[in-house]
Amino acid sequence: MNPEAVSRWSRRHVAAGALFLVAWQAAVLFGAPHRTGVAFGLYGFVLHTVAGKGYSLVPSYFARQLVVPRAPPASLSLLSLGTVGLAAVPFPGVPAVVGVAGAVCWALGALVLVGALGWTVRDNVTGRQTGTGEPNADRRRVDRFANAFVPVVFGYLLAGAYETLAVTGGGPSLTGRGLAGAIHLLAAGVGVLLVFTVGFRLLPRFLVSYPPSALVAVVLPAGALGPTLVAGNLWGGTWFRLGAVAETLAIVGFAVAYVVLFVRSDRRRVGLYGPLLGVVLGVVGVSLGLHFAFVGVPTGGVTAHYRLNLTGFLGVTIVGIAYQFYPPAIGSFPGADDRTALASIWCLAVGVAVEASGSLAGVALVVTFGRLLAFVGACLYGYLLFGLFRERYGGR
């Protein structure tokens, strides 16, 4: 598949993800069912964006070109239909078959994505060939190590898709933990682990710096192991505690690595503040998860944990990285500048922090204010992204 076509379909996945981000924050703000928010946020925003950038980055990181040209349009249609079905079924009066159909579509979309990327890298599965140019030859060791965990991400995506289908359709479960098991497989096993694997290749180049190699060696294995232990052992026991420790080690290690990269660099582009704020929220989120494992679940803790990790760590980080690929300042439409982009990042980050604080304190007004801020941030992100896509690429 030629690079221009890959780029076009990558943008379309990212654009769909932006729409789902706005829908997610609106659903949370206006009191839609929890599962609707999860569908829009995880299955929609996070995993559509992951799919889009996966099509453009994974082949190049394995020194290959995408060899299944029909995969991106097929996965976009299936994932989008699936997300809408999963988001609709929690509402009263919507027949269960809508959710089953949504789960089937979404699982097929995930299968298309994994199949296309897997077939593309079939002769370089471990990623020993990294596509790293000679000017970056000193980065190859980290690049190879990061590549080795991409197949693990594929495995989690397939497992999470199956678990979603099993939970929705009443089939045999992998984790026995219902939707929570599927969420952890997809959010931690796909979203978070891919941020680690791609992040250790991408972010050092954005910042023209080098991550501490010892942290890379710790973060990736811990991030690969943690989701399995947590998803299969919610909400207690030794294995759950070990999983919580692994996830905490991974997030905290990645946070330290990114802060080191950021401090060492003189680059201060607006998108780079997204991961910086994201890792801070992620550390708070996994610390709360560690509290669940060793102390107990406080009132409002589950909601705060979910929002800090999914909206905070993943959401704010993804938005920041998106601005690196699609910098708003190159646009000429109203508001197309770094200040608006930074405002969107801060609204999302501060909004989720305020909401989580309100959830833990049991203050509904604070929760609502935080959700409103996050909704504003999502709308600004969508506005900037769609404005830039329309101006730069038209209908392509």
Task: Explain what the structure shows.
The protein is mainly alpha-helical and 396 residues long. The protein has three domains: 1-125; 144-266, no CATH class; 268-396, no CATH class. Helix content is 77%, strand content 0%. It is built from 13 helices and no strands. The protein has helices at residues 3-29, 34-61, 71-88, 96-120, 140-147, 150-169, 178-207, 213-231, 238-264, 273-294, 301-325, 338-361, 364-393. α6 (150-169) packs antiparallel against α7 and α9 (238-264) runs antiparallel to α10. The chain starts with a helix and ends with a helix. Keywords: Membrane, Transmembrane, Transmembrane helix. This is NnrS family protein. The chain crosses the membrane at residues 41-62, 74-91, 97-121, 142-162, 182-203, 215-236, 242-263, 270-294, 306-326, 346-366, 372-389.
In quaternary terms, these chains amount to single chain
- List the secondary-structure elements in sequence, H or E: HHHHHHHHHHHHH
Roughly how much helix do the residues carry, as a percent range? over 70%
Spatial gap, N to C terminus: 16 Å
- Give the CA-based shape: globular
The helix count comes to 13
**SS strand fraction:** under 5%
Q: Regions with pLDDT < 50 over 5+ consecutive residues?
A: none
- The chain-level structural class is mainly alpha
Largest beta-sheet details:
none
What's the domain count? 3
Radius of gyration: 19 Å
Beta-strand segment tally = 0
Overall pLDDT metric: 95
